[in-house]
Structures are given as C-alpha cells and as structure tokens.
Amino acid sequence: MFDKILIANRGEIACRVIRTARRMGIRTVAVYSEADARAMHVEMADEAVCIGPAPVGESYLRGDVILNVAKQTGAQAIHPGYGFLSENAGFAAACAEAGVVFIGPPIEAIRVMGSKAESKRVMAQADVPLVPGYHGEAQDLETLAAEAQRIGFPVLVKASAGGGGKGMRVVRAPAEFADAVAGAKREAKAAFGDDSVLLEKYLGRPRHVEIQVFCDTHGNGVYLFERDCSIQRRHQKVIEEAPAPSLPDDLRRRMGEAAVAAAKAVNYVGAGTVEFLYEDGGFYFIEMNTRLQVEHPVTEKITGQDLVEWQLRVAAGGTLPLKQDQLTRRGHAFEARLYAEDPQREFLPAIGRLVRLRPPAENEHVRVDTGVREGDEVTMFYDPMIAKLIVWDEDRDAALRRLRVALGAYEVVGVTTNVGFLGAIAAHPAFRGVEIDTGFIERYRADLLPPPAPVPDRGLVLAALAVLLRRNAETKKARRAASDPHSPWLSASGWRLNDDNHHDLRLIDGETPRPLTLHFRPTGYEVEVEGRPAIRAENVAWDGETLTATIDRVRTRATVVFQGLDLTILSDGSVWRLHLDDPTARAADQEGGSGRLTAPMPGTVVRVLVEPGQAVEAGAPLMLLEAMKMEHTIKAPAAGTVTAVNFAAGDQVSEGVDLLVLDVGEEK
Description:
By secondary structure, the protein is α+β, with helices and mostly antiparallel strands. 28% of the residues lie in helices and 33% in strands. The protein has 18 helices and 39 strands. The chain has an 8-stranded antiparallel β-sheet with strand order 14-13-10-11-12-15-22-20. An 8-stranded antiparallel β-barrel has the order 24-25-26-27-28-29-30-31. The radius of gyration is 28 Å and the shape is globular.
C-alpha cells in the first residue's frame, strides 16, 4: 500500500479522498490554485502546494506541474478525482513515464472509452446492447443522412468526443437534419476540438441507469449494482438514487453482467461506470466513465463499501476486496447536488460568500460531502457545487422522506442556491410514484419552477419581529455605553410618552413595498400586515440568529440572517428574502443623479461600447457580457452621460460588481 498520495483535484472530491486516505494511514498532498489558498481540502491534507493562478488551464489542468509536485513531495500515486485530468490519457501516460501510479484505468481504456464512436464499436464486438445508430468514420452529410433514414426519425446527433450535452441535437424530421448536423459539428469543434458526430435512435422517454463496476489487475471484475440518474437538466444529473427503482431483478443482473463485459473488453482496472439508457424492458450502452463518479456515495450507502478504499487497494496491486457473490445491497439511497445557481434564471451560476452554511446533522441516515465551509467564497473559476446531500433508509419511501426533511433543514445564505428546486423534485407526486425518465424536469418544469410568490404574512411577521428585536439588542448595548443608561428614550421596548406603543416598518419584497405596524402588548405583539387584521405573536425570543414565536397559536422557529439592510428568513424549508426600507438610506441614494449598472451574473466582458463622457439614450447598449456561453447586453436604463467604465474587454467580473456609472441627472 502507498505511504503518500497526491490528490490532483479540489473541492468535495479532494476532501472525500483525503478522509479515506487518513483512515487508512496514508499521508496526503493537496495541490491548489492561488484562489484556493484557504480552501477546505488544503487545510485537511498533510501537505499542500500551490500550482498556479486561479484559471484551471494555469493550475488544475497543468499535469506537468502536478507531476513535479508529486516527485518533490515523494507521493507514490496520484488520485485524479473526477473532472480535470481524471480521464486524460496523456496525463495517465505521463504518470507512467514518471514512475508515479495513476489511480485510474489503463491508458488504452481511457482512450477507447473517451471516444463515443470507438467505444460503441468495441461494445458491439463484446455483444453489449447498443442503441440502433451509426458510429462510423465517414462524416460527409450524404452518408450521415442515409444512415439517419436507415435508423428512422427521430434521431439524436451527438458529438463523438464530448459530453455534458454539448454538440447534441434531436432531429425529428429529414428536413431538419442538415442544419442540426452543421450546428452539432460547430459546437463539438469549439468545445472539444473534434467535429465528428455519431447518430443514435432517439428514445422518447428513457431512464438513465448506470452500473458501478470494479476490476483489478488479477482478472477479477464485479458490479456493485446500479444507480438511476434520470433526473437531469441539460443532460446534467441533479438527483441520483440506488438501486434503480422498479426494475426486475433479472434485468438488474443482465445489466450488471453486460457492464462487466464492457469493462473487460478494454482490459479495465479500477472504478468505472457503464451508463445505459433503459426503456420498455430494453437497455442500451451509452458510454463508460473511466473514473469515480460524482454519485458514488449512493452505491456506498447501499453496499456498505468505501469505493475510494477499493481504488487505493486495486491501484496498489491488490485484489478486489469482495467477489460478486459476496456483494449485497440493503435499503435505498438518494443523492442531491446542491449548487450555487439560480433556477429562476436558467440555472446561471451564482457566486459570493457563504454567509451562513449549516447542513443537517449527519448520522447513519444522512451524509454530507462538501468542500466548503461557512465564510468561504464561491468563485467564478470553478464548478459552483456547495455539497452533495446523501440520505439512506430501509426503503425508497422512507429514504425520500429523509431527503425532503434534510433539504428543508439545509441553511445556505449569501448565494442563490437550487435547494428549493431540489425540494420541489423530492416532493413531486410523479417522482414519488417513480414516473421518471430523462425528460422529467422539462415535463414538470411549471411545477418545479413556479414564478416567485410574494412572501407570506408569516414570513413578514418573522422578519419584522427580528428587525425590532435586533434593534432592541443594539439599543441595550447603546444604553450601557450612554451617560444615562436608564433613559427611556433609548429603549426599543415599546415605551412611549402619551402615544400608542408601536413601530412602523416597511419591507421590500422583490420590488413591492410591504408595510407593517407592530403594536406592543403585555404578552407579545400584534402585527398589522398591509392594514389587514392584526396577527398575534407571543412568546417571542431572539438570540441573534434564531427567532422563536407563537404566531396565531402556532409555535414557529426561524433563522434570520442580516446582511446590511437585506434579510433572509429560513423556516420549515422555506427561504424568504426581504429588504428593510430605510428612509435615511433612500434619501441619501436619491440625492445624486448617478446610476451604477451592475453585472447581473458572473462572466467575462466581451466588448465595451462606450467611453467616459459619452452621452447615451435610454436603452442604448453599453457593454457586452458573456456568461455560460451566452452574450448579455448591458443597456442604459435612462438617457444620461457615462461617467465611469470600470472594466475592459477580457476582464472577468463577479455578479453585482459595478460595471459602469451613468449620470442620469441631465443629458449632456
């Protein structure tokens, strides 16, 4: 067994590998970019070495630099995690040449399985079921069109060299075929440097079922059952589960045996995943991922095995810990991927500081794999995953209940997240009823992503109480420092001289003002929301973070987080965001005539269309911003004069930064 390994990755997978290595008595070396100097994986590892600036091309994709670090630190092996260099045959070859063990499959297996077309040719020879299609080398339009007619429409055009949904088109009629192929080739060339495509019969409502396989250098190969990863958006997995529900046991066995045959066809070694589409009793090979998968924890939960430990033992030359007939599964597990992203804005990534990050308590039923802590920054440079939430119980219904409860208990403030979206999936009747396929999210999009609703009265009352009690705490602090600490004029307890004891507040919900009046009563408060009959709030307590109150006889608990005049209220799985309308701040803001135009998302400035001193009309384009491979135009909200341009073409910007300043007081 190795004494020391290097983890060529970051985030939650780096932390995940470190935990197993530490348990096995193996020392670890972390590598990190300048942006990750204080990252969680850096602090967890025994040693850590900086490998370059923040962009991945200058750090985590620099295989030569990473190999030099391995030599300098005496690491005997490199664990690539997933992503980055994990499926890079060139890096695996460089490791072999340098005498460092690559904790992954043989170079040729990576190469073959990295090509969708070649992998399908090899699978056909191994009698692994394939979706009817064309995987040939001829790429002229005439050949492709003839093959599409043979397969029968609708067909799927796919980039041969890539993944993640890039270079993929569904073609439903012959007249659409030429344009679809041209578009897929352009996108494939831009993303992967290879414009070759393959064709497949398009399945209407397939499920995505994958098999976890493991092989060693002694000729042994097993499958550790299956996972269902059908809940996807833009071909990216959102919630995974194991085992796949509602599959006959005979079908599970046949899929597992086909997956092992696929692995042995390329002399595979280590952990891999063979992915299939399943529909109407038939299953068809899609591709093989030659690495550990993001969703491997659900397999670990139902088998009781540590797959990273298996990887380390096999890479060190050992045999598989268990044979096929020794592997068993128990119960059901789900994994939900928590991302800093905005589901209401086409899942655009969000960046910012994790002001509050409190996961549910971990136990035998709940596991949280993460690479960030409260106070850390989610940056524009890397995948915005916050954590993977994994739950387990004896059956699917029980595990799904635990998933809903755990998602409701997850508290994240500071960045927009998909937690509510995940909760909507977990609570959807069709998901509970196993009416699932790869089109689930689009089919139920209206249910899963309803328009933002106004904050309910309960949320407004909780916010108002928190504002008042926070003021009271600050006032008490001021009284202690005052020359007359007993003065009633410094009290926010409700004392008034010849006046009704009340407070008037105005909260902004989106762009809508929501006025409230709080009346002090001997047992608590009566709160009028927008002039409606008062809501009683009694037994109110506030500790600076958590607010408890009995609201109209219902005991309620909420976490309230203040960020300046912004409030986030988290209660029973609901998240409400409000802004405290401060007349003083509003008056100060209205004194000037300048308008700061901020970045609506993290991205790159493509082009600046104006310069300081230039007069512009309302609606005039000022700057082009690229994010998620789409261009967004920053326009003037009113006529005025540009007084400052804060960024140039090529600059990367964070969400919310001031891009330009426009003087709208008077057009020059």
